[in-house]
Amino acid sequence: EREREREREMTSGVEDGKNRSVGTDHNHQQPPPPFQGVSSYPPPPQQQPPATAYPQPAQPHVPGYAVVDVRHSTEHHRLPCCGIGIGWLLFILGFFFGAIPWYIGFFLFLFSRNPRERPGYIACAIGAVIATIFIVIGALRGSRVWS
């Protein structure tokens, strides 16, 4: 007799007072909660505000000290010699005046503190080294030391 009751309960979809029918009643059921992820997985990163332009460095703040923004306090003036700088002018003139301006640019490079002039001075230093190598080879070849 119990088995028959059990079969009736299973066929009707009711067991232990619970309705297990497939039919849905949307008015009385709540939607399932959203998927929260695996508990062992790290949480998603917090959203950051969108970047407005180039990345801006954080402003240093030290209580009790005055902080000067270096980016705006240093003014970049135009380089001399039509804006190319003394180093590049000496490099160009070295082709016309036999490498003497390159040696001048090399010595200016040794004592220069302006980072905007340094690339021209470095070009002069490289030109001076190459010119010295050619001068030494030419002098030795003309003196018949190697022949």
UniProtKB/TrEMBL annotation:
How is this protein annotated for GO cellular component? ribosome
InterPro entries per record = Ribosomal_eL20z-like (IPR044804)
Q: Which UniProt keywords apply?
A: Membrane, Ribonucleoprotein, Ribosomal protein, Transmembrane, Transmembrane helix
TM ranges are: 86-108, 120-140
Establish whether keyword Isomerase is in the entry: no
Keyword Transmembrane helix recorded:
yes
Q: Where are stretches of biased composition, namely Basic and acidic residues?
A: 1-28
Question: Pro residues bias: where?
Answer: 30-48
According to the UniProt record, where is the region Disordered? 1-60
Q: Which PANTHER family does the annotation name?
A: 60S RIBOSOMAL PROTEIN L18A-LIKE (PTHR46631), 60S RIBOSOMAL PROTEIN L18A-LIKE PROTEIN (PTHR46631:SF9)
Q: What is this protein called?
A: 60S ribosomal protein L18a-like protein
